[in-house]
Amino acid sequence: MQRQKKATSGLFVCSGAYVITRGSLAASRTMYVQLLNNVLHLPIQFFETNSTGQIISRFTKDIFIIDMRLHYYLRLWVNCTLDVIGTVLVIVGALPLFILGIIPLVFFYFSVQRYYVASSRQIRRLTEASHSPVISHFSETLSGVSTIRAFGHQQRFIQQYKEVVNENLVCFYNNVISNRWLSVRLEFLGNLMVLFAALLAVLAGNSIDSATVGLSISYALNITHSLNFWVKKACEIETNAVAAPWIMSRRPPLQWPNKGVVEFINYQAQYRDDLGLALQDITFQTHGEEKIGIVGRTGAGKSTLSNSLFRIVERAGGKIIIDGIDISTIGLHDLRGKLNIIPQVKPMLPHPVLFSGTLQMNLDPLNKYSDSKLWEVLELCHLKEFVQSLPEKLLHEISEGGENLSIGQRQLVCLARALLRKTKILILDEATASIDFETDKLVQTTIRKEFSDCTILTIAHRLQSIIDSDRVLVLDSGSIVEFEAPQNLIRQKGLFYEMTTDAGITQESGTKNKLL
Fold this sequence. Notes:
Elements lengths: L1 H39 L3 H6 L2 H43 L3 H46 L1 H7 L2 H51 L5 H31 L21 E8 L9 E7 L5 E6 L5 H8 L5 E8 L2 E2 L5 H5 L2 E4 L14 E2 H5 L7 H10 L3 H5 L8 E2 L8 H14 L4 E5 L7 H14 L4 E5 L11 E6 L2 E6 L1 H7 L2 H9 L7 H5 L1
Parallel strand pairs: 3-10, 3-11, 6-9, 9-10
Antiparallel strand pairs: 1-2, 1-4, 4-5, 7-8, 11-12
């Protein structure tokens, strides 16, 4: 009989631990997937107004609490709850009047808990908020370590790191102090419960035997510890529990866009409500299969224009129409899946153009194309010889962020990816800014040939790469100042003429006669 009781007790303990562990694993997995999905679909404004440390903290500290702490606290709280209920029943059975003292004491326990949780929750939030600058500062220091050493500012960054760590420790210290505050008050209430049980035993006199008195007082001593632990774990559980539609009902046709006509109508864009307009009343229309060059001084709004096409920056006014469909009326998945971009890449900027994994995965993430097709686009991008020289060839491992490739090679890989995923509209955002001039000419020839039946919007600082475009769009301070064929713009001697003169293009042998 005794063995059966032990076996039953062990079975219930194991079952309870299994259920709580499985539930916490499911909760952790669900939270992580939903968190990652939401972060990937957030607008660009979120990343501009929140530090990297805060975002990383959500994926590390919060997930750690669910993985390691929450199920542990929950299991202890359930055990304490059952222990408290059993203890109270035993004491009330021995001393019925004990229930008169339990009611006010329970009220005081909940009052202390409610007061503590309100403060502890805010202290925990301050602790988490002060932890984010530690991660951000460390990440920034690693990213700019060469610049820091070059200018001899090591001690300044070390001092800044100490300051953010100290601020985090101050918040952590307050968290410890609040726990001590709770412990003192819970111990006091527990001692009152023991005192009440002892007084009842004395007042009962000879009406109860000594064994019952010993049982009630010993259980009262036990419930002090159990109740303290129960309140603490309940507080810990409560304290630690501390975008545009992706696909809309209206979806474009499968063959959209089939002409490549892009039209901006009085379009305005701004990155945040507290900032001015980055684009002001942009109005122009491309023809199908037209090659448009977009130029302007730094800050003119060139990259904002391409971000607007992908709705990375949402409109503040006006609209963009592609082949008769207003892009604001369709989901981001449908829109971005129909456009192609070779993005701007510069050293020390965290643009995720390449990911950890094989070269083949970076070229063809969805595994849609054959190896022969991959080699074909690598040859078009003048990367075939380089990849053939690698020991693993297409299975060559790309390090985090593509650090084991040069900036120019990363851009050529992006070009190869764009050639694989050929769409009717291609945006080149300074796509050849980090490769040499000769390779640039070869790449531009490849783009003209392979995307001859596509509409190409080229954003470039090298005017040589857009000088033979069908038309050139000149931006200044977020507005269109010129939009004509490059030959006409040079004859007009406006802003574009000044830019070509500064670049020395009109003075080059043969080029001036060709343009004029």
